[in-house]
Amino acid sequence: MNGQATTPESQQERASVLELLDRVLNKGVVISGDLVISVADVDLIYLGLRLLLTSVETALEVGTLPERPQRLQ
Which of 12, 34, 44, 60 to pair with 22, CA 20 to 30 A apart? Predict the structure, then answer.
């Protein structure tokens, strides 16, 4: 035992997190947002964000990633 409670609810919660991670890596998730930085009611900077979170294998399969990235040394 590792000292943590192993209730059915905690086991189901862990399974849900693992299922969510598996789904995110296999299917991918897109997160997008817009940010405007203003000073004294003057819009100065616009930042548009799009984030794709998926596994390398999935990105290669769907063509989002043209080639396997080189490992950093």
Answer: 34
